[in-house]
Amino acid sequence: MDPGRDGRDNEADLSSGTGPVSRHANGGAVGAARHLGPLRGMPLWLKALTGVVALVLVAAIAFGGFWFFRLQNNISKAPLNAGGENTEAAGNDATGRLQILILGSDTRDGKNSEYGTSDDSTGYGKSDVMMLMDISEDNKRVNVISFPRDLLVDIPDCKDKKTGKDYPARTGVMINEAMSEAGIGCAVDTVNKLTGMQVDHFMMADFNAVKELSNAVGGVDVCISDAVFDPDSRLRLPAGTSSVQGEMALAFLRTRHAFADGGDLGRIKAQQGFLSSLTRKIKDEGTLSDPAKMLKIADVVTQNLTVDDGLASVPTLLTIGTRLKDIDISKVAFVAVPTTPAPVDPNRLVIAEPAGAQLFSALRKNVDLTDPTAPASPSPSETATPSPAPTETAPPVPPYNKAIQPVTVANGSGVSGRAQEIVQALVAGGFTQTGQFLAQPVAKTAVYYGNGFADVAADVAALLGIPATLMIPAPGVSGVQVYVGSDFTSGTTYGAGAGGGTAPALPQDIVNQTAGDKVCQQANPELIVR
């Protein structure tokens, strides 16, 4: 049989429904030739379509592989901790509550050299921005807590895991220096120590990341009350709303002088306003559901991103991104850690107590900061099955001397003389080293205690009948502080049922804004362009 002739006959016969079809039914060709019959008999248009589909499938597989390896190779990574290893199991990236420390590095290497020399940022660089992003387990809330870079804190012992060099603990150091010697893990350990929480991951970006990301999304809208010019950061904006990207977006986030009174807190509010606007834009434009847009942003971000080992994979980053896409922007709360000028240097800040301890306690209890009266979701430590009692009795803790333990009473009850009444009860109970002062009014009484004073606080609380649930660790407190609220206005024993309200003690107006709020920043009068 003439193969060429047979091929032409197949095309003709298939179109007419006769010929080789009936021969095949009667046994016809066998073996490999028989299996090739249907493919060889395709119409030309079907062959072309099959070829196009195959080409698209191959291209898609190659494209997906290209982007996966490109994004994966973009990512830089570093150890999560620098000595203070996590005491809890890591959160589940897909379903658990997560705390992610977001850092902005001030390094002047490479693409960042135009903002200064390497002498301006030694070692690993300092954290120009530090925010803790807290994602709730049910994916309904996100808290973003900003730490001022001028905040004085205690930095724990840290070890540079690259060099093996140990760095001793330091006291009263600016928080932005935490990672400059031993690396990013030391910043993580510092935040863990300060908040009593456990950071699961970190993400650190540099100056260039801000420029590239703002370009990738086509600009971010920001608002300012008056026209300003800051020669230090090179920020120049008119009054009202402007779209910033590239260098101007970076200048908006870096400026230390353009907003409020020119301090770090005004800068934090501007950064939170920028992120709120960016969040709204990404949500409104459906970016998280658009693969092309997401690839563009992911490529930009990963080229300028350093993460911990547990986050250093494209699937993990996508998992967390997917969790964020459906969150109500009114439940994305931006908060600044409560601070007050440091006694040793008014240009530096320290945690304001008891407000700082109240905030960290609420975070540990997973309170909805946008609605503190809502029931809190239990934390893993609160729902975990208690460990069985040890078979051997632990040796008793040596008793301390009550007479030398520092205990102060802050009168926030609104009733004159309340602190003196509580002090008299403490002295009668053996706590003779006491002090008292008038404080800001608060609704709920609490006992705050510094590092190493948990046992003293427990005895003070028991003496006054204050429940253990109202004991709050506060690293900024020296000794123990009884902060008397309006729920303890008489007597020296906390009343039965007092403090039983649903709302926890929280600083007033702790949330600066949510991602749903459009806030206009107040310009620093000294930099307003007239």
From TrEMBL:
It comes from the Bacteria. Signal peptide: none annotated. Residues 387-399 have a biased composition (Pro residues). It holds the Pfam family LytR_cpsA_psr. Residues 372-386 have a biased composition (Low complexity). The chain crosses the membrane at residues 44-69. Residues 406-488 form the LytR/CpsA/Psr regulator C-terminal domain. This is LCP family protein. It comes from Arthrobacter sedimenti.
